[in-house]
Write a structure and sequence with these properties.
It is a single chain. By secondary structure, the chain is of the alpha/beta class. It contains 8 helices and 11 strands. It starts with a strand and ends with a strand. It is globular and about 45 Å long. The longest helix has 17 residues. Strand 4, helix 2 and strand 5 form a beta-alpha-beta unit. It has one domain: Glutaredoxin (3-Layer(aba) Sandwich).
Length: 219
């Protein structure tokens, strides 16, 4: 059986469903704090989160066709570069299916990505980590391999930086919000864009890539 991974940029109905699903994820997050994931890297070698114990990990689920994924990637690249020496690592878990995986190497070069890229991520992987089934989504994992934060939708630089700083500190200050849901903000931004430019111009600009709402990947 296959399930769709959806980009948050698209159909309002899809976003509403994702929002409802996200609320359920938040309610159940306390039972899903152990981070476990094994995928393949671009050299077809198996990689696992377990090998990053002792590091702070930002596990980002994305795809080349996902417009908000592309827009948030420079933030992840910049924060990886800034905090790498302090034991922080970004891992990009691509949900591209086989027909779009060929676009990954050029995407990595264009975005100047220097962190690990894994492939064949699925909705089952995301749901197991409490991230729903819509892209992008990010799990913040501490040095003990526990998920201490979830970001549903695109990351925001200040929020992600504050989370990293908290994890690098003695953690005596209150913890950042456990779940951040940026879907509503995306919905408003998308609605404003449609109002300003019109549906026809928007579709022309995006070339139809990722705006139709779904990409089917193995579960």
């Amino acid at each position: 059986m296959k399930y769709p991974i959806r980009s948050f940029i698209v159909v309002p109905l899809v976003l509403a469903i994702a929002f409802t699903s996200a609320s359920a994820q938040e309610a159940n997050q306390t039972t899903r704090n152990e981070a476990s994931l094994t995928l393949r890297d671009l050299q077809d070698q198996p990689q696992s989160l377990s090998q990053y114990r002792g590091k702070i990990v930002m596990l980002n689920f994305w795809a080349t066709w996902c417009i908000p994924c592309r827009e948030e990637m420079p933030i992840l690249v910049g924060l990886q570069k800034r905090y790498e020496a302090q034991g922080v690592v970004v891992i990009g878990a691509s949900a591209d299916e086989q027909r779009t995986q060929k676009a990954i190497p050029s995407f990595v070069r264009k975005q100047k990505i220097a962190f690990p890229i894994w492939i064949d991520a699925t909705t089952a992987d995301m749901q197991r980590l409490g991230l729903g089934e819509a892209l992008p989504a990010t799990a913040i994992i501490d040095r003990d391999g526990q998920i201490v934060g979830r970001i549903l939708g695109p990351v925001e630089k200040d929020d992600l930086q504050n989370r990293i700083e908290w994890l690098l500190s003695d953690r005596q200050l209150p913890a950042p919000e456990a779940v951040v849901n940026n879907i509503e903000k995306l919905k408003k931004d998308h609605a404003g864009h449609k109002h300003e430019h019109g549906e026809e111009e928007e579709n022309h600009e995006h070339g139809g890539v990722g705006v139709e709402g779904a990409s089917t990947v193995p579960s």
